[in-house]
Amino acid sequence: MNMTADAPLLAADGVPLAVKLKRAERRKKLRAALLVAPLAVFLLATFILPIALLLYRSVENPEVPAMLPKTVSALAGWQGQGLPDEAALGVFVQELTAAKDNKAMVGNAAKRLNMEISGYRSLLTKTVRAMPLDPAAGPLREQFVNIDERWAEADYWRVLRHQDSRYTGFYLQSSLDIKRGADDSLHMAGDDEAIYLKIFGRTLWMSAVVTLFCFLLGYPLAYWLVNLPTRKSNLLMIVVLLPFWTSVLVRVAAWIVLLQNEGLINGALMAMGFVDSPVQLAFNRIGVYIAMVHILLPFMILPVFSVMKAIPPTYMRAAVSLGSHPIPAFWKVYFPQTVAGVGAGALLVFIMSIGYYITPALLGGPDDQMVSYYVAFFTNNTVNWGMAAALGSLLLIATMALYTLYARIVGANRLSLG
Question: Locate the ABC transmembrane type-1 domain: which residues (predicted)?
Answer without folding.
Answer: 200-406
